[in-house]
Amino acid sequence: TTSPAPTISPPPRTTITTISYLLLVLLLLLLLNTYLSPQTLPQNTGSGWYEDLLGFFRRTDVVSVTPWLAPIVWEGTFDPVLIDNIYKPMNLTIATTVFAVGKYVSFLKDFLETAEKHFMINFRVRYYVFTDRPNEVPSVNLSGGRHLTVISIPGSNRWQEISAQRMKIIHNTIETQIRKEADYIFCLDVDSKFHFRWGAESLGRLVSVIHPGYYDTTRNNFPYERRPASKAFMSMDQGDYYYGGAVIGGLVEDVYILTKECQKRFEEDAKNSIEAAWQEESHLNRYLYYNKPSKVLSPEYLWQDFKARTKKVKVIRFSGVIKNYAAVRPNAPSKPVSASV
């Protein structure tokens, strides 16, 4: 008689769980490596970058990874020395654009002086200041490897027109100048100050910041454009985060594509006499829903001076200053007219 075939027992459930966990961790490391840098990491960085990526799981009081596995940068989720040592050998240049139109030129001095203390220290930085008052641009002492370019643009009697032109001007300047001079770019609001380190931990292919007014609420409360007729339309079942328009960043070429698409949709709305709920910010949020950012900055990178610090926001790196809108914006009321401020 033939002996029965031996019964092969399945591996213990604990073994399967362990293998699955290890495979998941490996996948996370490979994916997050892609988000960490668009370039091949220098050979002399060793394996330390894995430790830095794992740092995004150190904070248990906040969500530090998006559903699509992009890091959300909070204090305590990265080693500043380690991450700077990863990026510095790349000899990067970071472009920084600000619009100082009309009376907003009065905010420029504080913006630049605080940037020189906290923004991308020991990296090459090129500031691009767009203004209709070039003679009022303040003289600020810049550190070595940091430069300021003043670009004249027309003024306007309506702040809405200034907002409408922002994406177009950034797009055109990237095309004609910035792409030849920088690797990464951050487009920031000038009526803001830096208060704490803003470094290489913020670099990524496409970078956005969670709006400080909506980081702790559900998407049905986000102020997306809800009218289907608008090219910025977001339905009630859409949305990941509400991103602030005061900070847009990433690789120069990726921001070039973003500004081109947002401006296109802005102009299509204008042809139909539609203005999105929060102008360019509404179009930005729609774009980032369909084109997920590779890195998301926490509200530490876009706070508001009138807001008290919370337990989750341990440091404030960059914040919008308190101001009288009627005094600085043409045809503006005295209350905020953008969800970004």
TrEMBL record:
Signal peptide: none annotated. GO terms for biological process: carbohydrate metabolic process. It holds the Pfam family Glyco_transf_6. GO terms for cellular component: Golgi apparatus; membrane; vesicle. It is found in: Membrane. Binds 1 Mn(2+) ion per subunit. Belongs to the glycosyltransferase 6 family. This is Globoside alpha-1,3-N-acetylgalactosaminyltransferase 1, like 2.
